[in-house]
Design brief:
This protein is an all-alpha fold and 270 residues long. It has one domain. Helix content is 75%, strand content 0%.
């Protein structure tokens, strides 16, 4: 290390930030493992929770998006593998979502939305999903859409979630999975498989965009990387093969409740 760097305040700050991030990654293994395990069991990546933890730990604004997207990509790769291996993925179900979402991601990137308005819309939509899971449980049995209706609904949902992803950077899986259930488009395991693929595609898109301007060496965060990989492997294996549909849906509800708590706190303190 260059000892003269300590005479430069800016360089001292950089060195201090690097040391903090290196040390934090050692004792944060368990929370990152738990997050990746829980999210991957229902076909999600956990990006929002990784971001929240990294913000609380004081990681740099340049590092956080790349790490979260990278972890998201790793977990959804494992989830996609396990859910596809267990034959839960229906290509006829996922293709319309991807077809309409990909161009809308790019369009969303050009749109600016007031942050407070977006947060309230996000909170309301998450609360509606919680109501669907815990209160309005039998909504899927009340309507059986025809094939052309399923296609139109899938294209519309894909476009809306793609636009949301482009505007906010949110993968959209946390919405896609319960919406597939609400509109009776597939089973919980089929929804989880679609969610994993959907988040995977959005994570790849986001990483490609950000790597044009910045770079992060994942080996510098090896403990976190291993925790996320281990959690993602175990969680997606359990979710794809062993968890019942009801258990998966309740677990998804818990994850969304946690997201609502964090979002509500952020709105109140804004």
């Amino acid at each position: 290390m260059d000892h003269h760097a300590f005479n430069d305040p800016d360089r001292r700050l950089v060195y201090a930030s690097m040391m903090i991030e290196s040390a934090v990654s050692l004792w944060m293994v368990i929370p990152f493992f738990i997050i990746s395990l829980a999210y991957s069991s229902v076909g999600l990546g956990g990006g929002s929770s990784y971001t929240a933890l990294l913000i609380l730990l004081g990681f740099s604004s340049l590092t956080i998006p790349l790490l979260s997207l990278s972890f998201n990509l790793l977990v959804t790769t494992l989830s996609s593998y396990h859910f596809i291996r267990q034959k839960h993925l229906r290509f006829k179900l996922i293709v319309p979502f991807l077809f309409s979402s990909i161009p809308m991601v790019w369009l969303g990137g050009m749109i600016q939305v007031d942050q407070i308005i977006f947060q309230w819309l996000l909170l309301i939509s998450l609360l509606s999903i919680i109501i669907r899971i815990y209160i309005w449980k039998d909504v899927t049995s009340r309507w059986s859409p025809k094939p052309y209706q399923k296609l139109l609904i899938s294209l519309l949902i894909g476009a809306l979630l793609g636009l949301l992803a482009g505007i906010t950077g949110i993968g959209g899986g946390i919405y896609l999975i319960p919406l597939i259930l609400v509109f009776n488009l597939g089973t919980i395991k089929e929804a989880a498989a679609c969610g994993a693929i959907f988040v995977f595609v959005n994570s790849v898109t986001g990483l490609i965009s950000r790597l044009n301007y910045n770079f992060v060496n994942l080996w510098d965060y090896f403990p976190l990387l291993m925790a996320v990989l281990a959690g993602g492997f175990v969680g997606s294996f359990i979710g794809a093969k062993h968890l019942s549909a009801k258990t998966m849906e309740k677990l998804l509800g818990i994850i969304i409740v946690i997201a609502v708590i964090f979002l509500g706190k952020k709105i109140i303190t804004a």
